[in-house]
Amino acid sequence: MVSSTIAGADYGLTLLWALAAGVLVKFAVTEGGARWQLATGRTLVRGWRDHLPTWAILAFFVYFVTWTYFVSSALVAASALVPAAIIPSVPLPVWGLIHAVAALALVWFGRYEAFLNLMKVFVGFKLAAVIAAALLIVLWSGADWAATAAREPLTPAYALSLMGGVGGTVTLLSYGYWMREQGWSGTARVPSARVDLTVSFLIAFVFSAAMMFLSSQIEWSGEILDQGPRLCLMLADRIGQEVGPIGRAIFLAGFWGAAFSSVLGVWHGVPFLFDDFLHLWRRQPPTGQRGAAYRSWAGYQTAAAISALLIPRPVWLVFAYTVVGSLFFPFVISTLLWLNNSRFMPAEWRSSAVINVILGAALTLYGYLAVSAL
């Protein structure tokens, strides 16, 4: 949501190629991880432990700790933008604290079924709000199509941010654990996972493209990364010009729903990775959502988000997270290209030529962009 807004403000719709590439790669990565798990009965993290050198696992864990700090603080900051913009008398760090504690409480006491139902409501509402806003501008007063051209020279960091932001980064690994919570196992579930992921990433593309379009229709002043809470208000005001205060309020609610649903997804899904890491390292079975490992990582995410609330540039924080998250893909793509074409994978479920071409091209692109950005 935020990375799409940033991209639309400076580049209009000219980065749709990066959005489409990001969605395609995220689908291939998530499908590859899900197929590995359903065909082998082992999570991708366990596949890494069994078949990668110890130094690679430790290096990824160090990255995972750092990435968790960025993603937790960035998403809480994004969620706090809306209430901080509407009620500026309450500082943004206070709103962030409320969101972080609320997410921890929902994960600590809630169960998977309740989380799933709540996420469905958030996703449906945010999608409806953003698409309706874009259609109203196109059909009501007419869009300024000249504004969809690039206003700034392209830099690799912006492309990385957009590709990293759409559909998630390390959080894609959560899908395997949600399959497990849902009771999905065995290769009979591979077609279900593919349909599930196709719909999910199609929604992500439409949502992000609509955000890019909306952002291109606004006269931005100054550096967008410094906008803070004004970011969502400027978007909402543009909608309000078309449909009045009710439309403005609906868009703000959708903006908040998109951000807080991401917070819930990360708070619920990411601790499963730490639970898996820790117990695989100890050669013990994971303890799941009610275990001490899971809850301790959810607590770390909350503490990380709260500690970062003093950073005065929340939009910059989101941008930094999406760039840092993109650096994960050369690693995960490399391992999928190897594991899903190796003797460890049943022959009938190894990657097709199409998937291998997508992942190979993505590895080249991400490697180039990452080196250029760094």
Describe the structure in your own words:
With 374 residues, the chain is an all-alpha fold. It has one domain. The chain has 15 helices and no strands. It has helices spanning 2-11, 16-40, 44-51, 54-86, 92-109, 112-141, 156-165, 174-182, 190-216, 230-243, 245-281, 292-307, 314-326, 329-339, 353-373. The protein starts with a helix and ends with a helix.
Q: Let me know the average pLDDT.
A: 85
Radius of gyration: 20 Å
For the termini, the CA-CA separation is: 24 Å
Instruction: Note the run of SSEs as H and E.
Output: HHHHHHHHHHHHHHH
Q: Tell me, briefly, the overall form.
A: globular
Q: State the share of residues found in helices, binned by percent.
A: over 70%
Give me a quick take on this structure:
The protein is mainly α. The protein has helices at residues 2-11, 16-40, 44-51, 54-86, 92-109, 112-141, 156-165, 174-182, 190-216, 230-243, 245-281, 292-307, 314-326, 329-339, 353-373.
